Amino acid sequence: MEIDSPQDLVVTTQHGCEIARVMRVVDNKPSGLKGESDPFIVEILRPINDDDRAKIAEQKQKEQDAFLQARGKIQHHQLSMKLLKAEYLYDYSRLILYFKSESKVDFRDLLKSLASQFKTRIELRQIGVRDETRLLGGIGCCGKSVCCAQFMNTFYPVSTKMAKEQNLSLNPAKLSGICGRLLCCLAHEHEYYASFHGKFPKLNAEIVVGSETARVMDINYITSKILLGFADRRKAHYSLDQVSGRKDQTTGRNLWWISLPGEGEPDLSILLKNLNPPGSGKKKKKTDAPPRSDNPGQGDGRRSSGRNAGPAPEKSEEHNDDNDNAAEDSDNGQVED
């Protein structure tokens, strides 16, 4: 069977008989694989015909009617759940109702009512916010259809660490998709940016150019350019191919320089002047505690319970940003009757 793109086909999936659209043809040769070995591999039955197109239009109308009727049943049973979509399989062997809820829902009575109403197998499937976006679709901040609705079969863990390694702003409004979670495309491009990790200096790092030093202001891995700022406020772009570095054996720090034509490694001692070996930082001297005063609450920094006691010292709090695991997988639950 010759398959073109785009083309609608009747296929058999793990759920039953469904309509699928060919997005791209990789190879027209039979794979020899069975759908049981991979849930994303489907068996192609045939291309759709005019009868199938008429049936698809009829099925969409029935799904809209089923959605309204099921939503009415939910309101009748006073259940705290939001119905998102009603979907029939192509052969009407099953009606799938997608919903979301903030808590667990006892919908046994609802299942009985729906089964008697539609005379078919009912599946209630609870989904999270990411699955809701994939189900309903939408336009992302890039102006294109969201990745989860266009080509993604599963969700991957996404963290703010991926954004840091891509030199992106950590503004939650810019890093979040329409689902309110971190953008899935951060994971798509992370492997590319991670391949540069350790090969080039970080932002604001000091780097030697000839006989002077500069600061790294920006690195663009797409254009392979690095922007440096000098002490006299000059700015200059260099190719990433010109960036060289090595680790200093004494301090254990990475030393970077720009390789200029006809010149070897420059004098890097200028970078070592302001660097201290790891663990060589000055330690605070331990001082003896001040003598206690005879009057409680005075002279020893303690608070007194009297009226004239001074204000309590402010407490300093530290915030740990190391928990970058912001990816939240959606809760998928399904109950069949």
Radius of gyration using CA atoms only: 32 Å
Estimated structural class:
alpha+beta
Shape field: elongated
Q: Reading side by side through the largest sheet, how are the strands ordered?
A: 10-9-8-7-12-11
Low-confidence stretches: 277-284, 293-335
Beta-strand portion reads 15-25%
In whole angstroms, how far apart are the ends? 37 Å
Q: Helix segment count?
A: 8
CATH class of the largest domain: Alpha Beta
Report the strand count: 13
Oligomer: single chain
Following the backbone from N to C, one meets helices and strands in this order, namely EEEHEEHEHHHHHEEEEEEHE
Structural domain tally: 4
Query: What would CATH call the architecture of the largest domain?
Result: 2-Layer Sandwich
Sheet having the most strands:
6 strands, mixed
Helix content: 10-25%
- Give the integer mean of the pLDDT values: 79
* CATH topology category name of the largest domain: GMP Synthetase, Chain A, domain 3
Kindly summarize this structure in a few lines:
The chain is of the alpha+beta class.
Give a written overview of the molecule.
Helix content is 22%, strand content 22%. With 337 residues, it is of the alpha+beta class. The strands form three sheets. It has a six-stranded mixed beta sheet with strand order 10-9-8-7-12-11, with no helix packed on it. Helix 1 (50-77) runs antiparallel to helix 2. The chain is elongated, with a radius of gyration of 32 Å. The two termini are 37 Å apart. 13% of the residues are buried.
